[in-house]
Every structure is written in structure tokens, then in C-alpha cells.
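pls design
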């Protein structure tokens, strides 16, 4: 019989100002795109955030989607120290305007009719109260104080020679004396800001073209400087394009070329007396007369450079800001933002960066894994010299966290299982044998007896058979245990002597439940059951699994969610049946998460569930799924991406870690180490001032089952409830459903058997 769960009320909790402090990011701040000055400090824009560096104190502060910005994937930035205003441009075409009075999201960039190309903001240049915004389709004027767009010149025009329609890519643009100068894919062009500014055909008058060709960078000060790409050999199917750059500057009424062929100009800046050229791995500084003053070899790829107090600060791609001593200046964070799976242990974090397309083809990001050792992030040197890794999973040995195992999922060559000791290469297993697409390890898990299992798919000669590798610590080797053909494999989970492996392939995908009877070396007493559509699973493959605190198996498929009660016993049944979660909305019964791709399921110590839906963000569910407590998406929360590939919970702190391909975000959850007795009971927000906060009051640190009575100062009962899962929310209503008056309210709490009690006070100001 199916479980019918009636939802009394389902609500989505949008992130409020009171919740914002509950978020923090684990972003990479290595790739510095731009550096600007703000009085006694520098501001640097990176892929996913901005950070502030004070050279005199060494203080570093960061700003990201976790504490104010509205997006990730920054592509352009500029800052005006006079007004203390910055503009952040994103790859999706939106902008953030950072002011002393707040951060404002701008999404109404005007688009040309019928334009379907990239909206990425290529460049921003501020001058007083105006900013010039360069995008692939043209150049726009933005009024900074009013935070609104003026004229936009769409860069589509008729080629005067071929009479064909063309569209310039505007790489960068600047403004001076009411004239906008643009570096485009067909030339350096300019136009006065007047009634015909938006007519791009006028930009192509010969009198408005300084020079034809492909120009990528431009800046202006006392003079104008720009970089031109010179192609020396066109690309073919087998050979890349060959090119160099020349940099020109205006002297008097003519333009001169700096006497050097630059490798690949990344940025140009001009000050009152200097031209600063960032060229792949070198910074060149010239006087405005074109005479070279300094050359700095940075030793790695760079994006930009900035001179502050006569010192050169360089924005690198991999190491944050470098000063002239090549000290790396940045907030601590992982090597890169790409994240796939995580492991947590004793305040340490390990992050894999690989992936699979259609659950089969390697993503081949070539990054390896990152490791947070409790005080700093580490990127093993091994991966810097060995970039051919597509790591799906990385786990530490619980009894010896310095020993790390990871899986490399590729079709041939270096595929296999690897061991690192103290982040140094130790040993590889099963690599390259055979050098075809068989025997590909997927995910790793230690069971409660500290035995290491690794799921494996497509065994050699097994017609797609799935099984597992078992690690023998004494011989330091893995042995293969084939099982069945079930349609691929996901990362396994293990509980109470049972190994569970999801099979994500369509049609034949299901769940392998393998009872190894706590003797994985002895297969004679093992029992196996495969759940498929005949067991009421959806037909399109299983992606995620979780065994909760009630010993129920939660099954996330590519087409929905199922629950199997007491799965260990179900292995012995002939035809066990999984159940949908049926909810009732507006009088109609509906299956929860019907047709949704469930990427990940995690259970906290209070038995609540975090569920990640591909493209739908994450849901925080009650223990039986009948109520949505929160839904977080990239639109209503700091999540950088709506497809969360992994969720890990630190049960000691209650922190919830969300991994996405655009970075890791952390949420301070309400549930931590729930037991039959009370922990550290915390009420928040407290006091509750209606003018500042209109949500529910939360109480955390409760027993697994808590009887709650709330009274006013005179002892009159105001509200009573039973809370499960270690926390409780009160909507500040009395027994009649009316909001309580201003005053002090007392919370009297006992655990289930009355052996432990706790009290709290709540101040309410209406």
C-alpha cells in the first residue's frame, strides 16, 4: 500500500536579509580579471567575487553572492574611487552597481531586436556619472547615479564593399570629452554622444574609423592607446591560428607603434604618464612617449596589471594578485571553482572536479582535486604537472585522513584508482589495463567497519556488468567483485552491511542492493536484489541514494523520487515495492518531484532531507517529505547554479555544503547533532522586531522529539507543539492564529521521556 502524505501547507522560503548571514562561499579567488584603486586599498574582481586588499595592513575582505552580489561568472569590472561606486558585469549580461548605500542588480540591458548571441559584458569603463558598457552586440551608455541605460549603438551594419550584413564584436570602449572610442573586430571607431550615437552606420564613416583591423583593447587618458591583433597564419583543421599584437598610442596628431611584437595582450591601462601592457606572462611599462621603462616577468599567465604607489600589482589567472615580490594576495579558497563531489571529515574538505556527460562520457576538466586541511586550501602539485585527470570522487581514510583515494574516470590510459599520502602521489591501481573503455571506477565509500569499496561499471567481457572493487589494506591492492548488469553505476552508499549502487542509464537503470553480510571477502553468504520498474521505480535510471535515520532508502531517479522501507529486509522479498510521495495541493493528489532529475539526496541528523533537482536548486524537506521547509535557487539565494551536484552535511556544526560546477556555497543549517537530549538551544532572531524581520522565529539545539509550551509573562499558554528533528519554527501566532502582542514570551521544553528540559525567552516588538 502506498504512503499518502497530505501536505497541510507547503511554502517556499525566500532568502531574507536575516538569512543572508547564514551563507558563506568557498569560491576560488585565483583568477583576477581587474584591479582598481580605492583610497588606501586595492579592489580586485575575480570570476565569482570581488575582494579588497589593504597593502599597509595586509587585510583582505571579500564580496560575493554569499554577502551581496547577485551573480557569479564576472566578466568585466570598473570602479570610481571618487564616488566609491563600482560596476560588476557578468557573462549573462546583467550587472551589479556597488555603492555605499547598497548593491543594485541591473538586468534591463537593451538588446537589439532578434539578437540571439552572447550577452556577455566584455568591458566597463567609468567616467564620472557615465559608464560605457561593451558587449558582443554593441556599446551602451549607462547613467551611474540613476542606474539606467541611455543610448545603445547596436554594431550591425552593411559592409560598404561586399554589401553584406555584418556585426562588430565590441571588445572594449572608453569615453572622453563626450566621445566614445571602441575597439572592435573591424577597427577602432568613435562617435560623439549625440542624437545619431545609436546609428552604428555612422560609426563606419571613414571619418569615424581611426584604423581598420581587429582591435581588442583600448584605454584613454592624456592620450589614447589600443592593441591590434595581427594574424600571421590562419587556422586550419589541424593547426591553430598564429598571431601577434602591436600596441599603438597617439602622440600629437599621429599614432605611433611601440617597437615590440607582443605575444597576446590581455589588458591595457594608461595613467597620466605611463602605458601599462599586460602581455601573457609579462608586464611592460612605457612612458606616454613610447619609451620602455620596466619589464616584469611574472612567470605565469596574467590578466591585468595596476600601478599603485609606484608598485606593480599583477592580476594572475591562477594565484590572485602578485606584488612585485610575487607574494600571492587573495582570500583563501580552492584552486578553481569547478566542483563535483565532496568529502568532509574532522573540519577538512576534499573536492573532486570531474564529471560525466550523459553519465558515461568523461568531462575531462583536467583539474584533479582540492583539499582544505582545516586552516588553508591545498592544490596538490601532482595535478599541476599531470593535468589528464577526470576525478569523479575523492575520499579520505577515516582512520588516517592523510591517506586519500580518488577515482579517475576516463576511457583509457590513466583510468583507475589512485592513492595520495599527505597530498603527494603514492600509488595507482588498475590504470590503463586494458587500454579500452572497460573497468571504469566511479565512486568510493568507507563502510562503518572502515572497509573501502569502489563502484565500477562496464567490466571487461561482462556486457556492461556492474560490480565493486574492495581494498585490502594488508596487501595494498584492490580485488574485483562482479555482480550484475544493471545499467551503469553511481557513487555507492553503505550501511549496516549493505552496499547500494544506483544505475543511471535509461530503460534498464535501477538500484543494486548487495548484502555482503559484513564479510565482503566471503561472497558465499551474500544476497543481492535489483530494483527496477517492476519494483515501481521510474524507467530512466537512478542517480542518487540515501538511507535515512528510519532505515528507509530514498531513491532519486532521472524521473522522480521513490522511498523503499526497510531495504535490508526487502532484499529477501520476491517483489518489494518502492513508494511515491503523494502530496495534496488545491484538492488534487500529485506525485512529489514527478519527472524531475534528482541529482543528490542528503539526510541530516534530524532526519530532514536535502534534495537537489537538476535545474531546480535544492529543497529542504521534512523527514517524510510531506513539507517543503525551504527551496533555494540561484534566483532567491546565493547558490551559484541551479544544478547542485553534491550535498554534504557537517553534523557537528549543521553546515550544509552545496557543490556546483560554478563553485561551492555553504549554508548554516538549523540541525546539528540531534540526540534524545537537548544541545545548545539557540533562538533566532531574538528580539523579533517586526519592522526588521517578518519571518518565523527558529529554535535549534532541541532533542530529537521535543514537547514545547510557549507562555506569556503572566504564565498564560500562548502556543504548544511537538517538534521533531532538532529544531522548531514559531510563526509568532497564538492558539487562535493571531499574532501575539509585543512582550516577553517563555519557551518551556521537555524531551520525549521527560528526562531533560530546557527554557528560552523570546522578545517580540511589533
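designed seq:
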Amino acid at each position: 500500500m502506498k504512503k499518502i502524505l497530505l501536505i497541510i501547507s507547503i511554502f517556499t522560503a525566500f532568502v531574507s536579509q536575516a538569512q543572508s548571514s547564514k551563507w558563506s562561499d568557498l569560491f576560488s579567488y585565483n583568477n583576477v580579471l581587474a584591479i582598481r584603486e580605492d583610497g588606501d586599498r586595492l579592489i580586485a574582481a575575480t570570476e565569482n567575487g570581488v575582494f579588497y586588499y589593504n597593502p599597509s595592513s595586509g587585510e583582505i575582505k571579500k564580496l560575493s553572492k554569499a554577502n551581496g552580489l547577485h551573480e557569479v561568472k564576472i566578466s568585466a569590472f570598473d570602479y570610481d574611487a571618487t564616488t566609491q561606486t563600482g560596476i560588476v558585469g557578468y557573462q549573462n549580461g546583467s550587472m551589479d552597481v556597488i555603492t555605499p548605500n547598497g548593491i543594485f542588480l541591473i538586468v534591463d540591458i537593451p538588446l537589439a531586436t532578434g539578437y540571439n548571441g552572447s550577452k556577455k559584458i566584455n568591458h566597463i569603463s567609468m567616467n564620472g556619472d557615465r559608464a560605457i558598457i561593451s558587449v558582443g552586440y554593441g556599446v551602451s551608455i549607462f547613467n551611474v547615479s540613476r542606474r539606467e541605460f541611455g543610448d545603445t549603438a547596436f554594431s550591425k551594419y552593411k559592409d560598404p564593399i561586399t554589401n553584406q550584413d555584418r556585426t562588430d564584436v565590441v571588445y572594449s570602449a572608453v569615453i572622453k570629452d563626450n566621445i566614445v572610442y571602441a575597439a572592435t573586430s573591424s577597427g577602432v571607431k568613435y562617435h560623439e554622444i549625440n542624437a545619431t550615437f545609436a546609428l552604428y552606420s555612422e560609426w563606419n564613416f571613414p571619418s569615424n574609423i581611426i584604423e581598420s583591423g581587429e582591435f581588442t583593447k583600448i584605454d584613454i587618458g592624456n592620450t589614447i592607446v589600443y592593441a591590434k591583433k595581427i594574424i600571421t597564419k590562419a587556422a586550419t583543421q589541424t593547426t591553430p591560428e598564429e598571431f601577434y599584437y602591436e600596441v599603438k598610442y597617439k602622440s600629437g596628431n599621429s599614432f605611433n607603434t611601440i617597437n615590440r611584437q607582443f605575444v597576446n595582450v590581455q589588458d591595457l591601462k594608461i595613467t597620466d604618464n605611463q602605458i601599462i601592457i599586460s602581455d601573457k606572462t609579462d608586464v611592460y611599462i612605457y612612458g606616454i612617449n613610447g619609451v620602455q621603462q620596466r619589464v616584469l616577468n611574472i612567470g605565469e599567465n596574467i590578466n591585468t596589471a595596476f600601478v599603485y604607489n609606484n608598485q606593480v600589482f599583477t592580476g594572475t589567472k591562477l594565484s590572485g594578485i602578485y606584488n612585485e615580490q610575487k607574494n600571492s594576495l587573495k582570500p583563501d579558497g580552492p584552486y578553481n571553482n569547478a566542483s563535483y563531489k565532496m568529502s568532509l571529515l574532522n573540519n577538512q574538505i576534499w573536492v573532486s572536479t570531474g564529471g560525466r556527460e550523459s553519465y558515461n562520457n568523461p568531462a575531462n576538466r583536467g583539474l584533479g582535486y582540492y583539499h582544505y586541511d582545516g586552516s588553508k586550501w591545498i592544490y596538490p602539485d601532482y595535478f599541476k604537472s599531470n593535468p589528464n585527470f577526470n576525478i569523479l570522487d575523492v575520499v579520505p581514510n577515516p582512520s588516517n585522513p592523510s591517506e586519500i583515494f580518488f577515482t579517475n574516470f576516463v576511457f583509457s590510459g590513466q583510468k583507475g584508482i589512485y592513492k595520495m599520502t599527505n597530498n603527494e602521489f603514492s600509488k595507482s591501481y588498475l590504470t590503463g589495463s586494458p587500454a579500452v573503455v572497460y573497468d571504469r571506477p566511479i565512486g568510493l565509500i568507507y563502510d562503518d567497519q572502515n572497509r573501502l569499496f569502489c563502484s565500477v561499471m562496464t567490466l571487461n567481457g561482462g556486457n556492461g556488468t556492474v560490480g565493486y572493487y574492495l581494498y585490502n589494506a594488508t596487501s595494498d591492492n584492490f580485488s574485483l567483485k562482479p555482480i550484475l548488469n544493471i545499467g551503469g553505476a553511481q557513487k555507492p552508499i553503505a550501511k549496516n552491511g549493505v552496499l547500494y549502487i544506483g544505475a543511471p542509464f535509461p530503460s534498464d537503470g535501477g538500484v543494486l542492493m548487495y548484502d555482503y553480510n559484513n564479510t565482503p571477502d566471503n561472497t558465499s553468504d551474500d544476497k543481492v536484489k535489483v530494483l527496477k520498474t517492476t519494483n515501481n521505480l521510474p524507467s530512466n535510471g537512478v542517480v542518487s541514494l540515501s538511507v535515512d535515520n528510519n532505515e528507509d532508502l530514498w531513491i532519486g531517479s532521472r524521473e522522480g523520487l521513490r522511498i523503499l522501507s526497510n531495504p535490508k529486509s526487502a532484499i529477501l522479498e520476491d517483489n518489494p515495492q518502492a513508494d511515491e510521495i503523494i502530496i495534496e495541493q488545491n484538492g488534487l493528489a500529485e506525485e512529489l518531484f514527478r519527472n524531475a532529475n534528482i541529482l543528490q539526496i542528503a539526510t541530516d541528523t534530524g532526519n530532514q532531507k536535502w534534495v537537489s533537482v537538476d535545474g531546480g536548486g535544492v529543497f529542504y524537506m521534512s523527514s517524510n517529505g510531506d513539507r517543503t521547509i525551504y527551496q533555494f535557487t540561484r534566483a532567491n539565494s546565493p547558490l551559484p547554479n541551479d544544478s547542485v551536484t553534491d550535498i554534504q552535511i557537517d553534523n557537528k556544526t549543521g553546515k550544509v555544503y552545496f557543490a556546483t560546477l560554478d563553485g561551492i556555497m555553504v549554508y548554516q543549517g538549523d540541525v546539528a547533532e540531534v540526540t534524545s537530549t537537548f544541545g545548545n538551544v539557540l533562538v533566532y532572531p531574538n528580539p523579533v522586531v517586526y519592522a526588521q524581520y517578518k519571518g518565523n522565529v527558529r529554535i535549534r539545539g532541541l532533542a530529537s522529539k521535543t514537547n514545547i509550551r510557549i507562555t506569556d509573562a503572566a504564565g498564560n499558554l500562548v502556543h504548544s507543539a511537538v517538534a521533531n528533528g532538532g529544531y522548531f519554527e514559531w510563526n509568532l501566532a497564538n492558539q487562535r492564529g493571531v499574532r501575539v502582542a509585543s512582550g516577553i514570551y517563555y519557551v518551556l521544553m521537555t524531551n520525549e521521556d521527560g528526562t531533560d528540559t530546557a527554557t528560552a525567552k523570546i522578545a517580540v516588538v511589533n
